Amino acid sequence: MNAFLILNAGSSSIKFNVYVVGAADALFLTCRGQMDGIATRPRLRVRDDRGATLIDKSFDAAEVPDLAVATDRVGAWLRERYSDVNLMAVGHRVAHGGPVYAAPVTVDDSVLKVLEQFIPLAPLHQPHHLRPMRTLADRFPGILQVACFDTAFHRGHGEVADRYALPADLYDEGVRRYGFHGLSYEYVAGRLPVVAPEIASGRVVVCHLGSGSSMCAIHDGRSVDSTMGFTALDGLPMGTRCGQLDPGVVLYLLSEKGFTTKQVEQLLYQQAGLRGLSGLSNDARDLLASDDPRARLALDYLVYRVARELGSLAAAMEGLDAVVFTAGMGENSAEIRARICTRARWLGLELNDGANQAGGPCISLPGSRVSAWVVPTDEEQMIARHTLAVWSARNRTAAPAVR
Fold it and tell me: How much is the pTM?
Protein backbone atom coordinates (compact mmCIF):
# COMPACT_ATOMS: atom_id res chain seq x y z
CA MET A 1 0.00 0.00 0.00
CA ASN A 2 1.46 3.36 -1.06
CA ALA A 3 1.03 6.50 1.00
CA PHE A 4 2.01 10.16 1.24
CA LEU A 5 2.83 12.03 4.43
CA ILE A 6 1.84 15.71 4.58
CA LEU A 7 3.55 17.99 7.11
CA ASN A 8 2.67 21.50 8.28
CA ALA A 9 5.17 22.55 10.93
CA GLY A 10 5.00 25.53 13.27
CA SER A 11 7.10 26.92 16.08
CA SER A 12 5.59 24.67 18.76
CA SER A 13 3.57 22.15 16.76
CA ILE A 14 3.69 19.86 13.78
CA LYS A 15 0.51 18.82 11.99
CA PHE A 16 0.44 15.80 9.74
CA ASN A 17 -1.89 13.82 7.49
CA VAL A 18 -1.40 10.44 5.85
CA TYR A 19 -3.04 9.74 2.50
CA VAL A 20 -3.22 6.32 0.87
CA VAL A 21 -3.08 6.21 -2.92
CA GLY A 22 -5.84 4.16 -4.52
CA ALA A 23 -6.81 3.29 -8.06
CA ALA A 24 -6.46 6.02 -10.69
CA ASP A 25 -4.33 8.02 -8.24
CA ALA A 26 -7.25 8.65 -5.91
CA LEU A 27 -6.17 9.96 -2.49
CA PHE A 28 -7.80 8.68 0.69
CA LEU A 29 -7.17 10.27 4.09
CA THR A 30 -6.24 7.60 6.62
CA CYS A 31 -5.26 9.75 9.61
CA ARG A 32 -4.90 13.34 10.74
CA GLY A 33 -2.82 14.34 13.73
CA GLN A 34 -0.53 16.79 15.44
CA MET A 35 2.17 17.06 18.05
CA ASP A 36 1.70 20.35 19.87
CA GLY A 37 3.11 21.97 22.99
CA ILE A 38 6.65 21.14 21.87
CA ALA A 39 9.19 21.94 24.63
CA THR A 40 6.43 22.90 27.07
CA ARG A 41 3.55 20.39 27.24
CA PRO A 42 4.08 18.00 24.32
CA ARG A 43 1.01 16.06 23.28
CA LEU A 44 0.50 13.71 20.34
CA ARG A 45 -3.07 13.37 19.10
CA VAL A 46 -4.14 11.42 16.03
CA ARG A 47 -7.58 10.59 14.61
CA ASP A 48 -8.54 8.35 11.75
CA ASP A 49 -10.58 9.38 8.72
CA ARG A 50 -13.82 8.94 10.70
CA GLY A 51 -12.66 10.99 13.68
CA ALA A 52 -11.93 8.08 16.01
CA THR A 53 -8.94 8.61 18.31
CA LEU A 54 -5.89 6.52 17.43
CA ILE A 55 -3.58 8.00 20.06
CA ASP A 56 -3.72 10.80 22.62
CA LYS A 57 -0.47 10.83 24.56
CA SER A 58 1.30 13.51 26.58
CA PHE A 59 5.04 13.74 27.15
CA ASP A 60 7.37 15.48 29.57
CA ALA A 61 8.87 18.64 28.12
CA ALA A 62 12.34 17.09 28.13
CA GLU A 63 11.13 14.18 26.00
CA VAL A 64 10.17 16.47 23.11
CA PRO A 65 12.43 19.52 23.44
CA ASP A 66 12.35 20.72 19.83
CA LEU A 67 10.83 20.26 16.38
CA ALA A 68 13.44 17.72 15.25
CA VAL A 69 12.62 15.38 18.15
CA ALA A 70 8.91 15.94 17.57
CA THR A 71 9.37 14.92 13.93
CA ASP A 72 11.16 11.76 15.08
CA ARG A 73 8.38 10.94 17.57
CA VAL A 74 5.72 11.39 14.91
CA GLY A 75 7.75 9.29 12.49
CA ALA A 76 8.19 6.48 15.01
CA TRP A 77 4.45 6.34 15.68
CA LEU A 78 3.65 6.36 11.98
CA ARG A 79 6.11 3.55 11.22
CA GLU A 80 4.64 1.43 14.01
CA ARG A 81 1.05 2.13 12.99
CA TYR A 82 1.60 1.74 9.24
CA SER A 83 4.32 -0.89 9.10
CA ASP A 84 2.88 -2.34 5.88
CA VAL A 85 2.77 1.01 4.06
CA ASN A 86 5.35 2.27 1.59
CA LEU A 87 5.97 5.97 2.18
CA MET A 88 6.37 7.33 -1.33
CA ALA A 89 6.90 11.01 -0.60
CA VAL A 90 6.50 13.78 1.97
CA GLY A 91 4.71 17.02 1.08
CA HIS A 92 5.42 20.21 3.02
CA ARG A 93 3.61 23.49 3.35
CA VAL A 94 6.06 26.36 2.81
CA ALA A 95 5.00 29.94 3.48
CA HIS A 96 7.15 31.80 0.96
CA GLY A 97 8.46 30.82 -2.46
CA GLY A 98 9.70 34.31 -3.25
CA PRO A 99 10.12 35.30 -6.91
CA VAL A 100 11.77 31.94 -7.63
CA TYR A 101 9.07 29.29 -7.13
CA ALA A 102 5.63 29.55 -8.68
CA ALA A 103 4.80 25.83 -8.42
CA PRO A 104 5.60 22.86 -6.14
CA VAL A 105 9.23 21.77 -6.29
CA THR A 106 11.32 18.76 -5.29
CA VAL A 107 13.40 19.60 -2.23
CA ASP A 108 17.19 19.27 -2.34
CA ASP A 109 20.12 21.18 -0.82
CA SER A 110 20.01 23.91 -3.44
CA VAL A 111 16.27 24.47 -2.96
CA LEU A 112 16.71 24.66 0.82
CA LYS A 113 19.41 27.30 0.42
CA VAL A 114 17.11 29.41 -1.73
CA LEU A 115 14.18 29.03 0.68
CA GLU A 116 16.36 30.07 3.60
CA GLN A 117 16.80 33.45 1.89
CA PHE A 118 13.08 34.09 2.34
CA ILE A 119 13.07 33.59 6.13
CA PRO A 120 13.03 37.38 6.78
CA LEU A 121 9.85 37.60 4.67
CA ALA A 122 8.00 35.02 6.80
CA PRO A 123 9.85 34.77 10.12
CA LEU A 124 6.94 33.16 11.98
CA HIS A 125 6.57 30.36 9.46
CA GLN A 126 9.46 29.78 7.07
CA PRO A 127 12.10 28.52 9.55
CA HIS A 128 9.68 25.97 11.00
CA HIS A 129 8.55 24.78 7.58
CA LEU A 130 12.16 24.09 6.57
CA ARG A 131 13.35 22.25 9.70
CA PRO A 132 11.46 18.97 9.10
CA MET A 133 12.83 18.91 5.54
CA ARG A 134 16.38 18.86 6.91
CA THR A 135 15.49 16.29 9.58
CA LEU A 136 13.93 13.93 7.04
CA ALA A 137 16.79 14.44 4.57
CA ASP A 138 19.21 13.35 7.30
CA ARG A 139 17.13 10.38 8.47
CA PHE A 140 15.90 9.18 5.05
CA PRO A 141 18.13 10.62 2.33
CA GLY A 142 16.30 8.71 -0.42
CA ILE A 143 12.79 9.96 0.28
CA LEU A 144 11.17 12.41 -2.14
CA GLN A 145 10.20 15.67 -0.44
CA VAL A 146 7.98 18.26 -2.13
CA ALA A 147 7.66 21.91 -1.12
CA CYS A 148 4.23 23.46 -1.77
CA PHE A 149 4.03 27.23 -1.50
CA ASP A 150 1.41 29.53 -0.01
CA THR A 151 2.51 32.18 -2.50
CA ALA A 152 2.22 30.08 -5.68
CA PHE A 153 -1.52 30.51 -6.34
CA HIS A 154 -1.06 34.28 -6.61
CA ARG A 155 1.87 34.29 -9.01
CA GLY A 156 -0.35 34.89 -12.05
CA HIS A 157 -1.26 38.43 -10.97
CA GLY A 158 -0.83 41.24 -13.44
CA GLU A 159 2.18 43.49 -12.90
CA VAL A 160 0.04 46.39 -11.69
CA ALA A 161 -1.35 44.24 -8.88
CA ASP A 162 2.10 42.95 -7.96
CA ARG A 163 4.06 46.22 -7.97
CA TYR A 164 4.76 48.70 -5.22
CA ALA A 165 5.40 52.31 -6.20
CA LEU A 166 9.14 51.78 -5.79
CA PRO A 167 12.08 51.81 -8.22
CA ALA A 168 12.19 48.97 -10.73
CA ASP A 169 15.44 47.52 -9.41
CA LEU A 170 13.72 46.63 -6.12
CA TYR A 171 10.92 44.89 -8.00
CA ASP A 172 13.48 42.96 -10.03
CA GLU A 173 15.13 41.87 -6.77
CA GLY A 174 11.82 40.50 -5.53
CA VAL A 175 10.28 43.37 -3.55
CA ARG A 176 6.74 42.85 -4.76
CA ARG A 177 3.31 41.76 -3.58
CA TYR A 178 3.11 37.97 -3.30
CA GLY A 179 -0.02 37.11 -1.33
CA PHE A 180 -0.35 34.12 1.00
CA HIS A 181 -2.81 31.39 2.07
CA GLY A 182 -2.62 30.28 -1.55
CA LEU A 183 -3.04 26.59 -0.76
CA SER A 184 -6.32 27.40 0.98
CA TYR A 185 -7.56 29.59 -1.86
CA GLU A 186 -6.56 27.02 -4.46
CA TYR A 187 -8.52 24.33 -2.61
CA VAL A 188 -11.62 26.53 -2.22
CA ALA A 189 -11.48 27.57 -5.88
CA GLY A 190 -11.40 23.88 -6.79
CA ARG A 191 -14.40 23.14 -4.58
CA LEU A 192 -16.66 25.86 -5.95
CA PRO A 193 -17.64 23.96 -9.12
CA VAL A 194 -18.96 21.21 -6.82
CA VAL A 195 -20.42 23.25 -3.95
CA ALA A 196 -21.57 26.36 -5.81
CA PRO A 197 -21.30 25.87 -9.59
CA GLU A 198 -23.33 29.03 -10.24
CA ILE A 199 -20.46 31.21 -8.93
CA ALA A 200 -17.42 29.05 -9.78
CA SER A 201 -16.51 30.99 -12.92
CA GLY A 202 -17.63 34.35 -11.55
CA ARG A 203 -16.07 37.12 -9.49
CA VAL A 204 -15.61 35.81 -5.95
CA VAL A 205 -13.92 37.18 -2.84
CA VAL A 206 -12.77 34.44 -0.49
CA CYS A 207 -12.26 35.45 3.16
CA HIS A 208 -9.73 33.18 4.87
CA LEU A 209 -10.33 34.22 8.47
CA GLY A 210 -8.34 32.56 11.22
CA SER A 211 -5.38 33.28 13.45
CA GLY A 212 -3.80 34.41 10.20
CA SER A 213 -6.31 36.16 7.97
CA SER A 214 -6.41 37.41 4.42
CA MET A 215 -8.79 37.84 1.49
CA CYS A 216 -8.42 36.96 -2.15
CA ALA A 217 -10.20 38.14 -5.29
CA ILE A 218 -10.74 35.13 -7.57
CA HIS A 219 -12.17 35.36 -11.08
CA ASP A 220 -12.85 32.17 -13.02
CA GLY A 221 -10.81 30.17 -10.49
CA ARG A 222 -7.68 32.36 -10.74
CA SER A 223 -6.26 34.79 -8.19
CA VAL A 224 -6.62 38.43 -9.24
CA ASP A 225 -5.42 40.17 -6.09
CA SER A 226 -4.94 39.57 -2.37
CA THR A 227 -4.85 41.61 0.81
CA MET A 228 -1.41 40.27 1.75
CA GLY A 229 1.73 41.51 0.03
CA PHE A 230 5.51 41.22 0.41
CA THR A 231 5.11 39.52 3.78
CA ALA A 232 2.27 37.96 5.75
CA LEU A 233 1.91 41.17 7.78
CA ASP A 234 -0.16 43.12 5.28
CA GLY A 235 -3.92 43.45 4.91
CA LEU A 236 -6.31 42.37 7.64
CA PRO A 237 -5.58 42.47 11.37
CA MET A 238 -4.80 38.95 12.56
CA GLY A 239 -4.42 37.18 15.88
CA THR A 240 -1.10 38.82 16.68
CA ARG A 241 -0.12 40.49 13.37
CA CYS A 242 -0.90 44.11 12.64
CA GLY A 243 -2.26 44.01 9.08
CA GLN A 244 -2.07 47.13 6.94
CA LEU A 245 0.21 49.76 8.44
CA ASP A 246 1.59 53.09 7.27
CA PRO A 247 5.33 52.43 6.74
CA GLY A 248 5.92 55.75 8.44
CA VAL A 249 4.95 54.08 11.71
CA VAL A 250 7.94 51.76 11.35
CA LEU A 251 10.24 54.73 10.62
CA TYR A 252 8.87 56.51 13.69
CA LEU A 253 9.47 53.49 15.93
CA LEU A 254 13.04 53.21 14.68
CA SER A 255 14.03 56.88 14.67
CA GLU A 256 11.97 58.39 17.49
CA LYS A 257 11.21 55.54 19.86
CA GLY A 258 14.61 53.85 19.59
CA PHE A 259 13.24 50.44 18.65
CA THR A 260 15.64 47.91 17.19
CA THR A 261 14.59 46.09 14.03
CA LYS A 262 14.10 42.96 16.14
CA GLN A 263 11.78 44.84 18.50
CA VAL A 264 9.77 46.18 15.57
CA GLU A 265 9.50 42.66 14.15
CA GLN A 266 8.32 41.29 17.49
CA LEU A 267 5.75 44.09 17.87
CA LEU A 268 4.26 43.74 14.39
CA TYR A 269 4.24 39.93 14.29
CA GLN A 270 3.53 38.96 17.90
CA GLN A 271 2.08 41.88 19.89
CA ALA A 272 -0.30 43.52 17.42
CA GLY A 273 -3.57 42.48 15.75
CA LEU A 274 -6.46 41.34 17.94
CA ARG A 275 -4.11 40.84 20.87
CA GLY A 276 -2.70 44.34 20.58
CA LEU A 277 -6.07 46.02 20.10
CA SER A 278 -7.82 44.17 22.91
CA GLY A 279 -4.96 43.72 25.36
CA LEU A 280 -6.75 40.47 26.21
CA SER A 281 -6.40 37.69 23.68
CA ASN A 282 -5.53 36.87 20.09
CA ASP A 283 -8.41 34.37 19.92
CA ALA A 284 -11.68 35.72 18.49
CA ARG A 285 -13.63 33.19 20.57
CA ASP A 286 -12.34 34.80 23.76
CA LEU A 287 -13.18 38.25 22.46
CA LEU A 288 -16.69 37.26 21.41
CA ALA A 289 -17.31 35.90 24.91
CA SER A 290 -15.94 39.01 26.65
CA ASP A 291 -17.86 42.09 27.86
CA ASP A 292 -14.68 44.18 27.87
CA PRO A 293 -15.02 47.20 25.54
CA ARG A 294 -11.50 46.54 24.26
CA ALA A 295 -12.64 43.14 23.00
CA ARG A 296 -15.51 44.87 21.19
CA LEU A 297 -13.08 47.34 19.64
CA ALA A 298 -10.84 44.57 18.33
CA LEU A 299 -13.74 42.75 16.68
CA ASP A 300 -15.24 45.98 15.33
CA TYR A 301 -11.88 46.77 13.76
CA LEU A 302 -11.61 43.32 12.20
CA VAL A 303 -15.11 43.49 10.71
CA TYR A 304 -14.49 47.03 9.44
CA ARG A 305 -11.26 46.02 7.72
CA VAL A 306 -12.82 42.94 6.11
CA ALA A 307 -15.73 45.00 4.81
CA ARG A 308 -13.39 47.69 3.51
CA GLU A 309 -11.16 45.17 1.72
CA LEU A 310 -14.25 43.52 0.27
CA GLY A 311 -15.04 46.73 -1.60
CA SER A 312 -11.44 47.08 -2.70
CA LEU A 313 -11.21 43.55 -4.10
CA ALA A 314 -14.58 43.91 -5.84
CA ALA A 315 -13.14 46.98 -7.54
CA ALA A 316 -10.05 45.01 -8.59
CA MET A 317 -12.34 42.52 -10.39
CA GLU A 318 -14.73 45.23 -11.63
CA GLY A 319 -17.62 43.42 -10.04
CA LEU A 320 -18.65 40.90 -7.40
CA ASP A 321 -20.83 37.80 -7.61
CA ALA A 322 -20.17 36.08 -4.29
CA VAL A 323 -18.38 36.13 -0.95
CA VAL A 324 -16.99 32.89 0.48
CA PHE A 325 -15.96 32.37 4.11
CA THR A 326 -13.38 29.76 5.08
CA ALA A 327 -10.78 28.81 7.77
CA GLY A 328 -11.30 28.89 11.54
CA MET A 329 -13.40 32.01 12.06
CA GLY A 330 -14.83 31.95 8.57
CA GLU A 331 -16.15 28.42 8.96
CA ASN A 332 -17.20 28.50 12.60
CA SER A 333 -18.26 32.00 13.68
CA ALA A 334 -21.77 32.81 12.55
CA GLU A 335 -21.56 36.14 14.39
CA ILE A 336 -18.45 37.33 12.56
CA ARG A 337 -19.95 36.27 9.23
CA ALA A 338 -23.21 38.06 10.01
CA ARG A 339 -21.47 41.28 10.96
CA ILE A 340 -19.39 41.28 7.79
CA CYS A 341 -22.39 40.51 5.58
CA THR A 342 -24.41 43.27 7.26
CA ARG A 343 -21.71 45.78 6.30
CA ALA A 344 -21.78 44.41 2.75
CA ARG A 345 -25.50 45.02 2.18
CA TRP A 346 -24.67 47.98 -0.06
CA LEU A 347 -23.08 45.49 -2.49
CA GLY A 348 -26.38 43.62 -2.77
CA LEU A 349 -25.64 40.87 -0.22
CA GLU A 350 -28.73 39.79 1.74
CA LEU A 351 -27.96 37.41 4.59
CA ASN A 352 -30.15 34.41 5.42
CA ASP A 353 -29.88 34.38 9.22
CA GLY A 354 -31.10 30.81 9.64
CA ALA A 355 -28.75 29.41 7.01
CA ASN A 356 -25.87 31.37 8.53
CA GLN A 357 -26.54 29.96 11.99
CA ALA A 358 -26.66 26.47 10.45
CA GLY A 359 -23.30 26.96 8.77
CA GLY A 360 -24.40 27.05 5.12
CA PRO A 361 -23.11 26.22 2.61
CA CYS A 362 -25.19 29.05 1.09
CA ILE A 363 -25.94 31.72 3.71
CA SER A 364 -27.58 34.39 1.54
CA LEU A 365 -31.24 34.77 0.67
CA PRO A 366 -32.56 33.48 -2.66
CA GLY A 367 -32.41 36.34 -5.12
CA SER A 368 -29.54 38.11 -3.32
CA ARG A 369 -27.55 39.89 -6.03
CA VAL A 370 -24.31 38.92 -4.28
CA SER A 371 -24.46 35.47 -2.69
CA ALA A 372 -22.56 34.33 0.41
CA TRP A 373 -21.16 30.89 1.16
CA VAL A 374 -19.27 28.86 3.75
CA VAL A 375 -16.76 26.46 2.20
CA PRO A 376 -14.39 24.54 4.53
CA THR A 377 -10.79 24.58 3.39
CA ASP A 378 -8.30 21.71 3.35
CA GLU A 379 -4.75 22.87 2.74
CA GLU A 380 -3.33 19.44 3.54
CA GLN A 381 -5.36 17.80 0.78
CA MET A 382 -4.11 20.42 -1.66
CA ILE A 383 -0.52 19.66 -0.63
CA ALA A 384 -1.22 15.93 -1.07
CA ARG A 385 -2.48 16.50 -4.61
CA HIS A 386 0.58 18.52 -5.53
CA THR A 387 2.88 15.94 -3.96
CA LEU A 388 1.22 13.15 -5.90
CA ALA A 389 1.60 15.11 -9.15
CA VAL A 390 5.31 15.73 -8.56
CA TRP A 391 5.90 12.12 -7.59
CA SER A 392 4.04 10.85 -10.66
CA ALA A 393 5.96 13.14 -13.00
CA ARG A 394 9.28 12.15 -11.46
CA ASN A 395 9.08 8.39 -11.52
CA ARG A 396 5.84 6.57 -10.90
CA THR A 397 7.26 3.08 -10.64
CA ALA A 398 10.56 3.65 -8.91
CA ALA A 399 9.60 5.71 -5.88
CA PRO A 400 11.63 4.88 -2.76
CA ALA A 401 10.05 2.90 0.05
CA VAL A 402 10.69 3.90 3.66
CA ARG A 403 9.59 1.71 6.53
Answer: 0.92
